[in-house]
Write a structure and sequence with these properties.
mainly alpha, flat, 2 strands, 5 helices
């Protein structure tokens, strides 16, 4: 019986060692991968054609008039975007309720999903309208240093798609 306990302890210890090694390996992998994609703060995103850094519109050397107009454009956009996000949130909650209801037909669920898709499309349309307004505000020199994809955290996903169904950003 004593040998059985020692053998069980030995197996337990080997399992713990393997798990610790896996955790250390995972941590190192994430650390190395994340540091290889980082860039120094304040450098801005590299342009598509390998030119110098580029910036958000608010980080450019704007005149007082441009800054005032940019503030107005941003206020109007963010107010409307907030409303759309709230509507999307509500529709997603409704979809969740429909999906967990065993008595509903699939057509009802698909209809709710179409409502969500329409709202998402409207949200993307508003984002493009915002970027066009910002673009019209900037001078040709400022446009050379502007990165539209930095205006929104998810703009790159919207432009290029991500995940299994879309391509990854360049």
């Amino acid at each position: 019986m004593g040998n059985l306990d020692v053998w069980g302890l030995h197996q337990w210890w080997e399992t713990v060692k393997i798990r610790v090694q896996a955790i250390i390996f995972s941590f190192l992998f994430v650390f190395i991968a994340s540091s290889s994609f980082s860039q120094p703060p304040g450098m801005g995103m590299r342009r598509w054609r390998g030119e110098g850094p580029c910036w958000k519109a608010s980080e450019l050397n704007l005149s007082q008039e441009q800054r005032k107009n940019l503030d107005l454009i941003q206020e109007a956009y963010f107010r409307e975007a907030q409303l759309l996000r709230l509507q999307l949130f509500t529709k997603r909650l409704e979809l969740r309720e429909l999906l967990t209801n065993p008595t509903l037909r699939a057509e009802t669920i698909r209809g709710k999903n179409l409502e969500i898709i329409e709202l998402q499309s409207k949200q993307e349309e508003r984002a493009i309208d915002y970027l066009i307004r910002v673009r019209n505000l900037l001078t040709p020199e400022q446009l050379k240093d502007w990165c539209p994809e930095q205006e929104f955290p998810h703009f790159r996903q919207m432009m290029y798609g991500t995940g299994p169904r879309g391509s990854t950003p360049p």
